[in-house]
Amino acid sequence: MNNIIIQIIINIITIIIFFLIQYYIAYYIQKGKNLATKEDIATITDKIEDVKVLYKSRYDLSVSEREFYNKMIEQIEEFLSRIKKYELEDIKVDKEYIFENEIMKTEYMNFIDSINIILSKAFVFLDDEKYNNLKAAINIDNAETFAVTRLNLLNAMRRSLYPLTEINSSNDLREYYYK
Predict the structure, then answer these.
(1) Which of the residues 2, 42, 127, 178 has the least number of beta carbons within 10 Å of its own beta carbon?
(2) Residues near 119 by Cβ (< 8 Å), separated by ≥ 6?
(3) DSSP for 81-118?
(4) Cα distance from N-terminal residue to C-terminal residue, the chain
(5) CA neighbours within 13 Å on the CB side: how many for 110?
(6) Whole-number pLDDT of residue 43
(7) Is 145 exposed, middle or buried (0-12, 13-18, 19+ CB in 10 A)?
(8) Burial level of 74, CB count in 10 A (0-12/13-18/19+)?
(9) pTM score, whole prediction
(10) Domains of the chain by residue range
(11) Which of 142, 140, 137, 141 has its CA nearest to residue 169?
(12) Could you tell me which residues come within 8 angstroms of residue 87 by beta carbon, excluding any fewer than 6 positions away?
């Protein structure tokens, strides 16, 4: 009888140990899965943060580039609007006229100074292709008129922001005249 009781106790202890081992194994398997999931989540989160940083830097650069171009357009348009006012009085404004007229000479010098500032900023903040496009567009010495320089600059700026653009300022930009 003692053997039967001992055998029953051993069987009960064996069953208890079996269930405890099964419970702990299942627990640690689940814990391992959770740990792997946490590590996966950490990796995924790091990758998401990297993408966010990349897009934020591109967005910040895009915003800076747009602000830069906005200031540039204002300076160019301000000078060219003065030229248009002279042309309204049937005065042909070219470099010769500019250097004979002290007021226009001063405005032209200010315009050249702002173009130099624009090129300096472009050199620092824009990539090589965008900088070279702006530099080529600003080439006042080779342009027929200041209006042509304006159109070249507008095209260079637009292509910088929208490389696949189809439109062209000389064809698609409506300009209004005083007359």
Answers:
(1) 2
(2) 134, 135, 138
(3) HHHHHHHHTT----HHHHHHSHHHHHHHHHHHHHHHHH
(4) 124
(5) 13
(6) 76
(7) middle
(8) exposed
(9) 0.55
(10) 58-172
(11) 137
(12) 93
Residue 56's φ and ψ, nearest 5 degrees, are: -65, -45
Q: Which helix (H) or strand (E) holds 149?
A: helix 146-161
Cα gap 28→11, rounded to integer Å = 25
Task: List the structure tokens of 166.
Answer: 């189809």
pLDDT of the chain, 179 residues: tens digit per residue: 677 888 888 888 888 888 878 877 777 777 766 666 666 677 777 777 777 776 666 666 677 777 878 887 887 888 888 877 777 777 777 778 888 888 888 888 888 887 788 788 888 878 888 888 888 887 766 656 777 777 888 888 888 878 887 887 777 776 666 55
Rg for the chain (alpha carbons), in Å?
Answer: 37
Structure tokens given for 4: 């039967």
Q: Give which of 53, 116, 114 is closest to 78, Cα–Cα.
A: 114
Tell me which residue of 67, 101, 79, 87 sits closest to 150, measured CA to CA: 79
| Sequence-ordered list of residues with C-beta below 8 angstroms from that of 131, at least 6 positions apart, any chain | 122, 123
Residue whose structure tokens are 């006042």: 140
Cα separation, 68 vs 4, whole angstroms? 94
